[in-house]
Amino acid sequence: MGQMHLPLELCHHAADAEEKLMNHLLSPDRYNKLIRPAVNSSQLVSIELQVSLAQLISVVSSN
């Protein structure tokens, strides 16, 4: 598999943007953890996660 090299400054700005987005979406005035996409509270909610290979490599290399 080939390697891709990005300038450190570009990676730093991407991390800043990701943190700003998470803070915006999960701020207490926007996000209520009691609200669920279900008719009643006993109903299960299924979620699906997709992770790209690049994200897995990043996690492995940080450990």
Automatic annotation (TrEMBL):
Membrane topology, as annotated: Multi-pass membrane protein
Descriptive protein name: Neurotransmitter-gated ion-channel ligand-binding domain-containing protein
Annotated localization: Synaptic cell membrane
Species whose genome carries this gene: Pavo cristatus (Indian peafowl)
Annotated Neurotransmitter-gated ion-channel ligand-binding domain residues: 18-61
GO CC term (a single one): synaptic membrane
Keyword Transmembrane (UniProt): no
Presence of the UniProt keyword Ribonucleoprotein in the record: no
Transmembrane segments: none
Keywords for the protein's UniProt record, in alphabetical order: Synapse
